[in-house]
Amino acid sequence: MAIRDILMNLPEVEKPLEKRLDFKTKLKWTLIILACFFVLANIPLYGLAENALARFEYLSIILGTEFGSITSLGIGPIVMASIILQLLVGSKILNIDLKDSEGKKYFQGLQKIMAIFFCLFEGVIYVAMGGLSAQPGMAFIMILQLFVGGLLIIFMDEVVSKWGFGSGVSLFIVAGVGWHLFAGAFGFIGAEGQLAAVGKVWVLFNSITIGDTVSATAAAAAIIATIIIFLMVVYTQSIKVEVPLSFGRIRGFSLKWPLNFFYTSNIPVILTAALLANVQLFAKLAESKFGATFLGSFSPEGVPISGLAALVNAPPLLESIIRGSFQYGYLWQSLIYIAFMVAGSIMFAVFWVKTAGMDAASVAGQISSSGLQIPGFRHDPRVLESILDRYIMPLTIMGGAAVGFLAATADLMGALVRGTGLLLAVMIVYKLYEDIAQQHTYDMFPALRKIIGKE
């Protein structure tokens, strides 16, 4: 009972007193947290001797971090806590009733305490295993900085979730992707800090000028792949099933309840990509401390070449074909990578629906409490549940598989930033646009919020 009391009374960001926040307030807090994130990401760790993780740019994008800064842990602790807790609840090892308000609060408290634990655990692992090597006598200070940075990310995520648009996890990912996308396209500073044509746009122009057709083709392929991925994600985001509903107390009033093809949005691919990123990260840390293990080993450039890390890494398939360095092993590696992404996304999509109140029973209860019903059927949540069940679980599985396949394919095509990051960014921005548009509609027509039960 004492543990439950602690979990129910953990420090948290206070919810707004108002039932709803206006557009300006949400926008203000979203921009404040975004600015804080960029500031923290540019504060280097005091006492850092060597940043062995600096070359893992892909991992930093997925984990919403900048290795070597005070926010080096990024969203890793939050995501790891969420993954483990979803697996425990989904497998009924932990029996928590998420339909009950007390059960939800207990679940959130348990997730927060696990995230705090992972802030300390990952901080110790990063420093002890040489990923972020400390100067002599500075190991404790380094771990403390990483722990505090992790806590700041947790509470900034809460601020965005309660006072802003979307969630902090999504915001931090899209901020990192946006920064790396701009640098990948228009970067002009080389590895040694000198002026150099490193952005693909400048590489394309420079290669055409000097007649280097291979480099020009590779740069053009990366730019075109980015555009194709963007268009594909925007198109698939717009696919939805619309369930017709009518308002029993107001004759002639009807609306359509949308069920998106990507029913769980970007959550499954965030969790899957973060899981694979953590596998590679811990593989690198294990190699630096113990040498090659079953987790894998890496080339001097930081590319996984063996073990589990290599299996869950996307090979440069398209670029290798263009540059003539294609190996048949890339085909098997690509198929395994796609299988991991698809299977992981389906698994996390199903768990998320069951733990986030998005299952047929929860949605039916939400619709029924708003006074809405399906035309031609009696006003009964069980009727709504049986009809919604025909769509929600198939959409969950198909949408999870599709988003995993898109992410894997995008990685293999070699966009300006890794395809998974780009896919996440497009989906997050699209969802953010929908949230902003919905908020604007509610501000313009307050009665609409009451009709659909959002008041």
Question: What is the structure about, briefly put?
Answer:
A 3-stranded antiparallel beta sheet has the order 4-3-7.
The termini sit apart by 34 Å
What's the overall average pLDDT, rounded?
A: 80
**Which term fits the overall shape?**
globular
What CATH calls the topology of the largest domain is Preprotein translocase SecY subunit
Number of strands: 7
Task: Give a short account of the largest sheet.
Answer: 3 strands, antiparallel
Level-2 CATH architecture of the largest domain: Orthogonal Bundle
How would you characterize the overall build of this protein?
The chain is mainly alpha-helical and 455 residues long. It has 2 domains: 1-164, Preprotein translocase SecY subunit, CATH 1.10.3370; 241-455, Preprotein translocase SecY subunit (Orthogonal Bundle), CATH 1.10.3370. The chain has helices spanning 2-8, 23-41, 57-62, 76-90, 101-128, 139-163, 168-186, 200-210, 213-237, 267-290, 307-311, 317-323, 329-355, 360-369, 381-413, 419-444, 446-451, and strands spanning 48-51, 132-134, 240-247, 254-260, 297-298, 304-306, 372-373. The strands form 3 sheets. A 3-stranded antiparallel β-sheet has the order 4-3-7. It has a two-stranded antiparallel ribbon with strand order 1-2. The mean pLDDT is 80.
Layout of secondary structure:
Layout: H1 2-8, H2 23-41, E1 48-51, H3 57-62, H4 76-90, H5 101-128, E2 132-134, H6 139-163, H7 168-186, H8 200-210, H9 213-237, E3 240-247, E4 254-260, H10 267-290, E5 297-298, E6 304-306, H11 307-311, H12 317-323, H13 329-355, H14 360-369, E7 372-373, H15 381-413, H16 419-444, H17 446-451
Antiparallel strand pairs: 1-2, 3-4, 3-7, 5-6
Helix pairs in contact: 1-5, 2-6, 2-7, 4-5, 4-10, 4-13, 5-6, 7-16, 8-9, 9-12, 9-16, 10-13, 13-15, 14-15, 15-16
